[in-house]
Structures are given as structure tokens and as C-alpha cells.
Write a structure and sequence with these properties.
22 helices; 391 residues
Length: 391
């Protein structure tokens, strides 16, 4: 009898777990549109991928909540589409989806009413799906309000804030420039217009961004120098990163010249880092060496972490002794900025590579001291010391 009770308890627990486990319905998109028309409801679409941890977390935490699902099914026609399958691919392309998960709210005519992106907790998600039902908070209404009065900063900022919940910054550019074209140069320097520029301007050659470059002190007074610096760095990053990620060297070097035309230390440093990342990914080690020899001290001299990264690359891929000695000089400077276990261990390995056993032992022992003081495992440095002591 006791065994029977345990068996019944186990089965009941399995039933509860299965009920709380979210399984997406693969309803065809065409059927969802027909259902939306017949029931007079908007459509809710989750675009996801099986490999996306944020998507899986939302499924586990949010969509396994019975109250969430009850609200969605009562108010929306719900479908869930994998972006690596036929209908998911089509929807991803149709609505220019670049982030996962993405949530689309459409009417029966496929008009985008609202959009969200990224992982959210249940309370935040529920707030947003309720906003999406309010016609005065939906994108078509906010866009119409803005376009009827395109110089109204309050109306535009409301539209922009809603738009950016589900769109990448590049998708904000067109409406941002419609608004900013109504503003004189003098009007651009205000806290509201700075926030609009910071959120919506992505074109490095645009009138507004070029104006920011020429009036950094004035914008720093209404925002802060740190925020102005971050905007300048982000616009260079948004310009160059896609070409580096896609290993598109032809277009990278075209756009690189535009970024270099800014002629600021902080942007030159950023371009330098992108140059090295692209060289590593395309395994252009001679170019990597030439670029670092010319610019390391000029552009990243106070970045201890990056100096060590360069040293690691030299250890793995550069073999001529004179260049290796230069990398040793850089890594030594990184230790002057921040004495570290990994920096000392790297120096020991670089000295070993140029066959300077005495200095290799010195830095290996220094690394072991730091390691012991921090109560970390000394296995890695002990292996290196053993190699050095057997030669």
C-alpha cells in the first residue's frame, strides 16, 4: 500500500510538471490571421531559436505561468515561430528581426501594433502585453500623432521610446531624422534633443552627429562628457562591428576611413581594436604585427587588459625575436598599471619563447607568489616551472 501511495504521488508530480512546462503551439501563420479576423483579436507572435538562452528562459519562467498564458489566450491569437524554420524565417525577414527573443503584436491585416525584444521577467512582460492592447500606446497611433506634428519633441520622444522596445537602433534612424530636420542647430543643444540623438542617430556622416563632434563641450553641459563619449564610441562600433562579424574586409576598410576621419584618440583606439579583431579572425598575422608595432603605445598604452591580449596573440602567432621583445615591453607596462598573475605568467612564457630562461623563471616565480597569496591553484604555473627547470 505504501508503494502505491508513493507511485500515485510520483505520477501526480509528473503531471504538475508537465502542465507547467511550456510547449509552443505551431499554428500556421495563415490560420492565425484568419482566426484573428474571425475573433476580432490581435496576434501575438514569439520569434525564438532553440539555441537562444534568453528565449528558453522566457519559456521556462514566463510562458509556463498559467496566469500569463490565460491572459495571452484570452486577448490574443498566439503563435510561436522558430526563426530557423520556414514560417519563422519569413516572419523574421518581414519584420526585420535582429534580436531574440522578439515579440510581435499584429492586427489581422499584419500591421505592426507593438514590438518587444529581449528577456523579461513576468511582471515587466505582463505590463507590456497590456500596453500593447491600448490603441493610444500602439505604434500606428503614436506614429500618426508624431507625423501630424513632427517638430513636437514630446510626441516624437513618446513614439521613439515605444519603437525602441522592439527595434534595433538602426531602425530608429529614419523617424529620428524626420524630427531632427525640424530643429535648428541651436535647438539641437538641449537635454531632450541630446536624448533623441543618443537613441536614434546612427549615421556617422549625418548633420546631427557631425554637429555633436564639433560641439562636444556644449552637449556635455546638457548631458555629460561621459555620455557624449559613449555616443561617439557607440556610433563607430555600430558602423564597423557588422563588417568585422561578417568578415567583410572590403566594406570594413571603406567604412574604417569614415571612422578614422573623426580624428579623436578614443575613436582611433576603437578602430585599432577592430583592426586587430579582424586580423585575428582572418588570420592575417603580418598585418596584426605591423598594426600593433605602429600603434600599440599610441592608442592602447593605458589599457592593461588589451596589452595582455596583444601579448597572448604574439605568444601564439608571432615568432621573430625582435617583435616578441616588443610585446614583452608592452606586457611589462601592463604590470606597471596592474600587477597580475596572468600578466606575470604571460611574461614568463614570452621569455621562454625567446629562450631567456633566467627571466622566464623570474616571472614564473612571481606568478606563483601571486597565485599562492590568492589561494588559487598553482598547477598551471607549476607545469611551466617544471618545463623551465628541466632545460
Amino acid at each position: 500500500m505504501r508503494f502505491l501511495y508513493i507511485l500515485v504521488f510520483f505520477i501526480s508530480m509528473q503531471t504538475v510538471n508537465s502542465q507547467n512546462q511550456f510547449v509552443p503551439d505551431d499554428v500556421p501563420y495563415k490560420i492565425a490571421l484568419e482566426k484573428a479576423k474571425s475573433e476580432g483579436k490581435p496576434i501575438f507572435i514569439m520569434l525564438y531559436a532553440d539555441w537562444c538562452p534568453h528565449c528558453n528562459q522566457m519559456k521556462k519562467e514566463v510562458f509556463s505561468n498559467l496566469d500569463v498564458m490565460a491572459f495571452l489566450k484570452e486577448n490574443y491569437v498566439c503563435i510561436w515561430k522558430n526563426i530557423e524554420k520556414e514560417e519563422g524565417i519569413a516572419l523574421k525577414n518581414k519584420y526585420n528581426t535582429k534580436s531574440l527573443p522578439t515579440f510581435l503584436f499584429l492586427d489581422a491585416n499584419e500591421t505592426l501594433l507593438y514590438a518587444l525584444k529581449g528577456e523579461m521577467k513576468t511582471p515587466e512582460f505582463m505590463t507590456e502585453v497590456k500596453y500593447a492592447l491600448n490603441s493610444r500606446m500602439q505604434l500606428p497611433y503614436l506614429e500618426k500623432e508624431f507625423m501630424n506634428d513632427p517638430s513636437n519633441s514630446d510626441k516624437f520622444f513618446t513614439y521613439l521610446n515605444t519603437l525602441k522596445k522592439g527595434k534595433d537602433r538602426t531602425d530608429l534612424s529614419a523617424p529620428t531624422h524626420i524630427y531632427l530636420n525640424t530643429q535648428s542647430d541651436a535647438q539641437l543643444i538641449s537635454e531632450t534633443n541630446w536624448r533623441i540623438i543618443a537613441n536614434g542617430v546612427t549615421d556617422i556622416k549625418s548633420r546631427e552627429f557631425q554637429f555633436v563632434l564639433k560641439h562636444q563641450k556644449e552637449f556635455a553641459a546638457v548631458a555629460s562628457q561621459n555620455r557624449v563619449d559613449r555616443k561617439i564610441e557607440s556610433i563607430v562600433t555600430e558602423l564597423l562591428r557588422p563588417y568585422v562579424d561578417n568578415l567583410d574586409t572590403v566594406n570594413y576598410y571603406k567604412q574604417r576611413e569614415i571612422a578614422k576621419s573623426i580624428r579623436l584618440q578614443k575613436t582611433d583606439s576603437l578602430v585599432f581594436k577592430f583592426d586587430l579583431t579582424l586580423a585575428e579572425r582572418t588570420e592575417k598575422w603580418q598585418f596584426y604585427k605591423k598594426t600593433t608595432l605602429e600603434n600599440t603605445q599610441k592608442l592602447v598604452w593605458n589599457d592593461a587588459s588589451f596589452l595582455k591580449d596583444i601579448g597572448q596573440t604574439y605568444l601564439k602567432h608571432i615568432n621573430d625575436t625582435e617583435s616578441l621583445k616588443k610585446s614583452i615591453f608592452w606586457v611589462k607596462h601592463s604590470l606597471e598599471i596592474n600587477d597580475s598573475y596572468d600578466g606575470n605568467l604571460l611574461l614568463a612564457r614570452l621569455y621562454k619563447k625567446i629562450k631567456d630562461k633566467k627571466l622566464a623563471l623570474q616571472y614564473a616565480n612571481d606568478a606563483k607568489v601571486i597565485c599562492s597569496e590568492m589561494t588559487w591553484s598553482t598547477k598551471e604555473v607549476d607545469t611551466l616551472l617544471a618545463e623551465l627547470n628541466t632545460k
